[in-house]
Amino acid sequence: RARIYDSEVNTRKFYERLRGQITQRGIVNVLRQGVEHNATKFILYFPTPLDANLQAKALYENNRFCCVRQLHYSKQHPELSIDMVLMLNGLPIITMELKNDLSCQTVADAIHQYRTDRDPKELLLQKKRCAVHFAVDDNEVIMCTALNGEASWFLPFNKGVDDGAGNPVNPNGLKTAYLWEEILQKASLSDILENFAQVVKEKDEDTGKTKENVIWPRYHQLECTRALLADTRVSESGRRYLIQHSAGSGKSNTITWTAKQLVDLKEADGITPHFESVLVITDRVVLDKQIRDNLRSFITKKDIVTWADDSEALKEALNKGKKVIVSTVCKFPFILQAIGTELRNKRFAVIIDEAHTAVGNEAAKDLVNALSTQEDLAQIEDYNPDDYESPLDALMAQQQNYRKMMKHISYFAFTATPKDKTY
After folding, report:
1. What distance in Å separates the CA atoms of residue 315 and residue 312, rounded to the nearest whole number?
2. Are strands 141-144 and 155-156 parallel, antiparallel or unpaired?
């Protein structure tokens, strides 16, 4: 055990302070932000470094990732143990109950174990003190972010197969091998802890009470955000992405994670931002507020998120250093007028929610109009149907040119129900 101070009393006081902060703020926040004690800041985790920062690389290598098998966690019932607990710098972050076909047990048994045999009042199992709890067998991975006895809510952490539930056959091993071969690798786990995991506070408008939700990404959310970031990092601006994200599967969180990490995306020098700003466009005011609240929960610097409903508000937001700007689709054309003229020398990312409806209404037609340069619009007016084999060909060519996207804007469109006109 490391001695923090000269006396056992002071050392114990530090540990008590650390325990209290984990209970209050959650393990993820404590790892990210550290702990202050007696006017001293204690750093408990070194984040993922940039390639060019050799000192940060050396510090990151000092992090200690380890796993403990059959961890006995209860003072009152010392015989009880959890199959596996993952720790980072001595602090538990993930618990796992592991089952397999040889023992004739499945994830259902692991879930039952968590719900009935694991007392959520135990210190290790209290809300926020671990980032996530996994139930794992040979075929499936199921997760829970906050144990609550029989009411514990478990969600799949599966890859999906043939547009359905479960996991695909793995020719090299178990179907669930991706959990330890891919997700729980050091770099991947660091990425999740730094950019995805979070405790989000929500205020009930009716009761005025605030509740806390412990967030851990599901596999499809993680895969989506990482794929978008990876392609954006190596591609030129002006690309278009359409993401089918089914209703009720955490689309708002995926949008939030994508926006946050697009804001943080840097050029090769590690300093220059890839995008001047990220615009998040929704088609409903209620959802607009929900995404704004989500963004403010996930982004540490609260003052970089704002709302804009016209070009002047956009320019004011940019002048004040706002990096994430939320608006509704009916206001979007006014914003794009500014982007398409005096801000054309800067790069932007535009995230559009509910793209299947946003691209179909009259306001969105103005949106597409605003996307095009004046030269493009002049070309549209000069189209001659006689130059094409059929009126349909002429119309298609005209619409393609009409919907041409400006090269300094990258688009990320989310929809649960893609239609032909969405594509």
Report:
1. 5
2. antiparallel
Which tokens sit at 397? Answer: 């060519």
CB distance 318 to 362 below 8 Å: no
Q: CA torsion sign, 322 to 325 to 330 to 333?
A: positive
Residue type at 13 in one-letter notation:
K
Maximum pairwise Cα distance, the chain: 91
Radius of gyration for the chain, computed over Cα atoms and rounded to the nearest angstrom: 25
CA distance 91 to 129: 9
Q: Are 339 and 400 in contact (CB under 8 A)?
A: no
Q: What is the pLDDT of residues 213-266, one digit of tens each?
A: 999 999 999 999 999 999 999 988 888 899 998 878 888 899 999 999 999 898
- pLDDT digits 0-9 by tens, 289-318: 666 667 767 776 666 888 887 767 877 887
Q: Across-strand partners of 81?
A: 72
Q: 42 in the Ramachandran plot: left (φ > 0), alpha (ψ -120 to 50) or beta?
A: beta
Secondary structure (3-state) at 170: coil
Please state, in angstroms and rounded to a whole number, the distance separating the CA atoms of residues 289 and 307: 9
> What's the full length of the chain, in residues?
423
Strands 348-352 and 305-307: what pairing?
Answer: unpaired
For residues 174-180, give the mean pLDDT: 97
DSSP string, 121-162: TSGGGSTTTSSEEEEE-SS-EEEESS-BTBT---EE----BT
Check: CB of residue 41 under 8 Å from CB of residue 29: no
Q: Which residues pair with 280 in a beta bridge?
A: 326, 351
**Alpha helices (H) along 26-73:** 27-33, 54-61
CA angle 213, 217, 222 (to 5 degrees): 155
